[in-house]
Write a structure and sequence with these properties.
The protein is α/β, with parallel strands linked by helices. The chain contains 25 helices and ten strands. The chain has a six-stranded mixed sheet with strand order 4-3-5-6-7-10, sandwiched between helices. Strands 1-2 form a two-stranded antiparallel sheet. Helix 3 packs across helix 17. The longest helix has 30 residues. The C terminus is likely disordered.
């Protein structure tokens, strides 16, 4: 009995563990070959992530070790809780830049280094808390309000700012940190006379090598996984030690502490100061991570739960906050490498974290002589591809209103600031959603052909011709309090401009939702039509909307039928409307004949 009860208990615990830690449910399904693939993928990403982590730490105005810490603790937490088997979590360009832009005004990254590091940790905690709250409250849909054109404008501008922000490291000068491009260029021009020639030479050589390596990797399949950034870092470390770059005035990374940090407390009293930055970082981090997870899931057929992703990302940021980590998110480049290397589960992320852990414990002194300009070159090359010129060309041809949104988002981010840019971009997306809901499109429909019956927009399809005596109108949006007056005004104008109309057919196929205000607008329009002796028919209106009209008393059951009539198809409604028109014409002819007699 004891054995039975223990086995029953384990059976109950296993599903619970799988729900909390998805990786637990995946491990039993993995074969030995799958485990080998995870190890290879994890080591491949580990080789790639070390130089990136150090570069992104520099971008966030932190020392290199903080980037490495951020590839250990948060990555392990995400591997246990995340739902995407190929997403690689860690420091990223946009998140690092936003963190630096939002916190540099609160504490100087160099002169007040300890305070600045504490604020970055607090920012990680706040970002994580916001993400967890959004996940628990099922607010993952909020992040989706940012449209792709608006997000593209932001990321393109942020990429430009990121590249320009590295000019000081690329040429070996000291420039005041700035995220507004015009001020950044102004400060750079003021100091460019002090440019350091050896640093410029190293920077140019590094950028040329990385660009050339990228082209070769695309052309030669065998070299696709070649760790070009790591190769560059090792080569420049050896060159720096041999040629003694430091004595030549080249800025180097300096001592990187060996080992992991002890858990530390956070400056809770500064929470209000970091909250605005935390909101924008949380929004961007989730958008970026979910976009990566979704793109990979479409390729490998896996299922990604956006709510679970929010909670997992939130908890890995919360955990990292107590170990001097910077905010993390899913990385597109590393996730793509992880997927292409054959990752079968989030165990690959655990292997990546262990690989970085070995570097932190034993190899950090090696990086002391690495020129900072090499990290700057890695950042510049990685962000240039984020400038989305192709989308601009497409939107010019497809939708110029979306292009306008992209340009506004790009300009605000470039000239107002990064944090302000993402907040303005989010507000613009929300306004765009409201505008499309409040002012939806509508169309007058005509008949294209009778067999099979086809009806389409008279203004767009030349073959569509009006049905004599019948006005067919389609409303392409929900009919509710925000646009009911607009709908009523449109219908009033249409009915006045078409005095020969005998029957109005309201095509409800595009009306997904109808509230009481929308119902009142329909009722008022029907009364107006009745006063003008015109019939009203409904076609293809969904059942919830029909129920709303019936509960409001706008429609009534008369015998076995509803009044006014509802039809399941537009063709049935038009055919019945033609009968009404014919009867009206007969009535007019009879009246004229009697007058002649």
């Amino acid at each position: 009995l004891g054995t039975m009860s223990s086995s029953d208990g384990s059976k109950e615990i296993a599903p619970l563990l799988s729900r909390v830690f998805p990786v637990v449910g995946v491990i039993p399904t993995l074969s030995r070959a799958d485990l080998c693939s995870d190890v290879i993928a994890g080591l491949t990403v580990g080789v790639m992530i070390v130089p990136q982590a150090m570069a992104y730490a520099a971008l966030a105005a932190l020392r290199a070790e903080h980037g490495l810490y951020s590839c250990v603790f948060p990555v392990i937490v995400y591997a246990l809780l995340g739902t995407s088997r190929s997403v690689s979590v860690g420091p990223s360009t946009m998140v690092s830049l936003l963190a630096s832009a939002g916190l540099s005004n609160l504490a100087h990254p160099v002169e007040e280094q300890q305070e600045y590091v504490a604020l970055v940790s607090l920012l990680s905690f706040a970002v994580g808390l916001i993400m967890v709250a959004m996940g628990v409250l099922r607010l993952d849909c909020v992040a989706r309000f940012v449209s792709q054109p608006v997000l593209s404008g932001f990321t393109s501008a942020a990429a430009v700012v990121t590249a320009l922000s590295q000019l000081d490291n690329l040429v070996g000068i000291q420039v005041q940190r700035e995220t507004r491009v015009h001020r950044l260029i102004q400060h750079f021009v003021m100091e460019v006379d002090h440019a350091h020639v050896p640093t410029i030479a190293i920077s140019l050589a590094s950028i040329v090598f990385l660009f050339a390596a990228t082209k070769v990797k695309r052309a030669v399949q065998v070299l696709k996984r070649f760790p070009d950034a790591l190769f560059l870092v090792i080569a420049l470390i050896l060159a720096s030690e041999r040629a003694n770059f430091r004595d030549s005035g080249v800025a180097i990374v300096g001592e990187v502490p060996r080992g992991l940090p002890l858990p530390s407390t956070l400056p809770w009293g500064r929470m209000a100061d970091v909250l605005p930055t935390a909101v924008s970082v949380a929004l961007l981090a989730f958008l970026q991570s979910f976009a990566v997870a979704k793109a990979i899931s479409e390729k490998d057929g896996s299922v990604v739960n956006p709510r679970r992703e929010l909670i997992a990302l939130g908890l890995c940021n919360v955990a990292g906050a107590f170990f001097k980590c910077m905010p993390v998110a899913g990385s597109l480049s590393r996730s793509a490498v992880n997927y292409q290397a054959g990752a079968k589960s989030t165990l690959s992320s655990i292997v990546t974290a262990l690989a970085v852990l070995m570097v932190v414990l034993y190899l950090t002194p090696v990086f002391a002589t690495l020129p900072q300009s090499v990290l700057a070159a890695i950042i510049v090359v990685s962000v240039i591809s984020m400038v989305d010129t192709q989308r601009v060309k497409k939107l010019w041809k497809i939708d110029q209103s979306d292009l306008l949104m992209l340009v506004i988002s790009f300009s605000c981010t470039l000239f107002v600031g990064l944090v302000e840019g993402i907040l303005i971009a989010s507000a613009m997306s929300l306004l765009l959603v409201l505008q499309k809901a409040v002012i939806p499109r509508g169309a007058l429909l005509g008949q294209v052909r009778d067999d099979p019956p086809v009806y389409n927009n008279i203004g767009c399809v030349p073959e569509a011709f009006p049905v004599e005596g019948v006005l067919i109108y389609r409303f392409d949006g929900p009919l509710f309090f925000a646009n009911a007056d607009l709908w009523q005004e449109r219908m009033h104008r249409l009915i006045r401009r078409n005095p020969d109309t005998v029957c109005v057919v309201l095509h409800g196929g595009g009306v997904a939702y109808l509230d009481s205000t929308g119902g009142n607008a329909i009722d008022a329009f029907m009364k107006e039509c009745k006063s003008l002796n015109r019939a009203v028919f409904f076609a293809e209106l969904n059942q919830p909307c029909r129920d709303t009209l019936e509960r409001m008393g706008v429609t009534r059951v008369k015998g076995d039928e509803l009044e006014p009539p509802f039809f399941w198809t537009i063709h049935d409604a038009v055919q019945s409307a033609k009968v009404v028109v014919q009867d009206a014409n007969i009535s007019i002819d009879s009246s004229m004949s009697s007058q002649e007699v």
